[in-house]
Amino acid sequence: MKSCVYLVGAGPGDPGLITSKGLELVKEADVIVYDYLSNPYFLTLAKQKCKLINAGKRLGFKALSQDQINMQLIKLAKEGYEKIVRLKGGDPFLFGRGGEEAEELKKNKIKFEIVPGITSAIAVPAYAGIPVTHRDSTSTLAIVTGHEDPDKNKSSIDWSSLSKMRTIVFLMGTKNLKKNISSLIKNGMSPKTPIAAINWGTYSKQKTVVGNFDDIFFKIKKKNIKSPSIIIVGDVCKMKSKLDWFERKPLFGKNIIVTRARKNASTLSKKIIELGGNPIEIPTIEIKPKSSELIQSKITNINKYEWLVFTSVNGVEIFFKEFINLFQDIRKLGELKIAVIGSETGRAVKRLNLKVDLIPKVFTAEGLLESFKKLKINDSRIFIPRASRARDDLIIGLKQMGNKVKEVKIYDTVMPSNQDKKNVESKINGIDIHYTTFTSSSTVDNFFKYVNPKSFKLKTKTKFVSIGPITSKRLKAYGIKTDLICKKFTIDNMLNEIVKYNK
């Protein structure tokens, strides 16, 4: 396949606002050349061997100049990389200089494609409850750069015509706001014209102020609104008080550390984003399956067992991957009954169109043992594929009941190979951490290998959240009192409890 450069619009910031085509290219890219305003979350979705190049430009800082970016794209294509994604905030052709990059690629006979993105000019006001057009107030819209090329001798903006527009959106508009407002007033706009400034729009840290030309600078200073920001001018700004929705979400503005394995963290992170929060992923464990040969050698005679017990989603996924590889047919399970330790693990089994025969009311090893006791299962052959460092309580309890138990350790939980203390500190330094979540004892142990427990608590003033009493007991061993212990040991309930606690 010949090299192709994809100029991809990453959208305004919320990772859910990238197009499906753009997201697919991010996941398939051999190289990603990314901007400052493209959400860093997208980089976590890249292939392990994908080359990442920071081309970020922001006020007062340039990782690469525009000429250097152009040359970099050409160089990467000539080096033979097949899928080169140029990831740009918003839309690549709306003040994104995508046109210049495409021109250079064309000049050098390099294949390229444009993948449009949702522009911040429309999306950011929408997240602030401001429609850029409205039947009762405006049917015209102007989108203007708030930061023209400083090398130009004079402005190319027709201020006389612009001042007659009913809605104006200035992108990158804070630095030259006084100058731009002055130009609008000189050309006939009233000093009482409504205006809004939105900082970090569509992110959990979004800040919005609404005023008029007379008082907006005072409000911007008071709320410390800086770049990157969008400015909206016009009567539509008055709609914010009626239509504000994003900033009213239950976890809006809350920074929440997620310590699950990266593969599992996405579910929790997605739910946090849906509730308006900002997930900070610090994976403390990595799931490392045992070799296929080892696992398959242990499950060849699975039919001689009566019960198959799963204690985690990872156990379900790894076991059935090797089971299908070995037997090619799910019916080879025969009449095996399946027990699971919790609802998330149960859902993983049900996704395979298999029935869960037993799930305890309390999602712990002790709860599962109690369920087996109630069913008087005391002379059964039980097969348990699970993590190598799991607690022994379940195995011991089932054997004491008279059952014949075969435990097979099908995966290890290890420290992530691509993370270190410096990496973790860079994620948490300088920001308020409102909640730190732990979903197992191993996430506690490994997290505190990256940070000192006492200094972390003092420095961040975070609230510690655990999925259950066993995890809380592990936190206590580090001198940490759990602020919130979930009553039901599931991810959904953990978030429900945080929402209630946050009110």
Give an account of the 3D structure.
The protein is an alpha/beta fold and 503 residues long. The protein has 4 domains: 4-118, Cobalt-precorrin-4 Transmethylase, domain 1, CATH 3.40.1010.10; 122-246, Methyltransferase, Cobalt-precorrin-4 Transmethylase, Domain 2 (2-Layer Sandwich); 255-285 and 417-502, Rossmann fold (3-Layer(aba) Sandwich); 289-414, Rossmann fold, CATH 3.40.50.10090. It is built from 19 helices and 22 strands. The strands form 5 sheets. The chain has a 5-stranded parallel beta sheet, with helices on both faces. It is elongated, with a radius of gyration of 28 Å. The mean pLDDT is 92.
CATH architecture annotation of the largest domain: 3-Layer(aba) Sandwich
Q: How many angstroms does the end-to-end distance come to?
A: 54 Å
State the name of the first-level CATH class of the largest domain.
Answer: Alpha Beta
By helix and strand content, what is the structural category? alpha/beta
Task: Assess the beta-strand content as a share of residues.
Answer: 15-25%
Number of strands: 22
Question: Main sheet, how many strands, which sense, barrel?
Answer: 5 strands, parallel
**Poorly predicted residue ranges:** none
Q: State the helical fraction.
A: 25-40%
User: What overall geometry do the principal axes of the alpha carbons give?
Assistant: elongated
Number of separate helices: 19
The oligomeric status of these chains comes to single chain
Give the domain tally: 4
Adjacency order of strands in the biggest sheet: 3-2-6-1-7
> What's the pLDDT, averaged over the residues?
92
